[in-house]
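Hey Z.,

So I finally got round to the adenosine-5'-triphosphate thing we talked about over coffee. Here's the setup:
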Amino acid sequence: MEKITSLAKRRGFVYQSSEIYGGQNGAWDYGPLGVELKNRIAGAWWKEMTRLHDNIVGLDAAILMHPRTWEASGHVENFTDPLVDCKKCKSRFRADQIPQENLAAKKCPDCGGELTDTRKFNLMFKTHIGPAEDTASIIYLRPETAQGIYVNYKNIIQSNRMKIPFGIAQIGKAFRNEIVTKNFIFRTCEFEQMEMQYFVKPGTDEEWFSEWRKQRWAYYEKLGIKMDHLRWHQHGPDELAHYAKDAYDIEYLFPMGWRELEGVHNRTDYDLGRHTQFSGKDLQYIDQDNNNERYIPYIIETSAGLTRNLLMILCDAYDEEQVADKGNDDDWRTVLRFHPDLAPVTVAVLPLMKKDGLAELAQDIRAELKEDYATDYDQAGAIGRRYRRQDEAGTPFCVTVDYQSKEDGTVTLRYRDSMEQVRVPKTELSTRIRSEIKAYKRIK
Ligand code: ATP
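And the result:
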């Protein structure tokens, strides 16, 4: 993880928030390559969940919601972590994340000092809206995006004439006052989620639950993730949330071990039932194709962290490889093997020399490619070094412009993964890259 954290900073994927002031715990900033990567991951998920499904539509709800929302959802009452402190070294732990022996003996796992009793700590960030700081002005930063979907479910049925089964997808920020934030961007106080809530008829929920498990697994396969680094974890009775009938996590083998990446949950009619109760609005679905049958839909949720996906994708793509030309400084390379659809830069254009019009020709080629791809241009230093820099940023294709390019209009197309180079007419570059991306198969 240290290698990934340092590469992320060095290459402008992720920086510590407010670093010049010593940093802000639990918050991170996404630099030029990081924001591109994050947008691509969000784009891939959005395409998968909305464009590829005729019956799933998008939503972008506000972060600030009516405070009753969080009473109805159960967050005010139940969204707590058990917290213990060490009286001696002042370390703070989640009671469910330290060895049971330590908890029973009230002994700090770090220094052996005495631990406090366990107390419940609500993870929602609470603030005030308006000028008065009284109880009537309390408002929360949303701890999940899902509730914005539930409270809009009737609006969407009406405005878009949706029929069950249908889904609503949303990507957005969520905030949790996490007790322990470590492992880089794995668990942070400000993060982004990609959630899809699928509304189904009660009785068909188990079938849809298994269908969505299948689809979410296939999604990671499509992105070229190492499938032996993914596994399912079914929630046991003691882990199952109060609203859930069944829940599975997709776990990824991060450098610190297997950890949750995404959850697929059968939330039953709990959410819409509670919002009916708290809002006094009738949230039943009326099935006009079935004698106006009325019911509260069951919800199957797929809930993934966008920023956690970004960390997973960085870990999954990271590779160090000994390359053929041993004996010089460049015989090792660090390479990020991103799927080309996710790579922050798709094509880098590199003139072999700055002089003799090669730089100008390379700039012209870049200008044409810009319309179709995220591009970079680099003319500084030896060509081998420039390839290494692009490998480290995960750029799948490099185009090198040399003297022959001036004569016959061909350029070299270099592949990140195999390091193979082929000569291609510059007029065919864009279509060639397009078909390479379509046919992409991870080789390592
Ligand atoms: P955990 O048990 O890790 O705290 P959770 O089970 O509470 O997570 P959910 O509420 O199901 O998580 O959230 C759905 C997804 O949102 C998670 O699978 C994870 O990818 C992401 N997520 C949740 N909390 C955080 C966080 N603090 N930082 C980054 N991502 C998060």
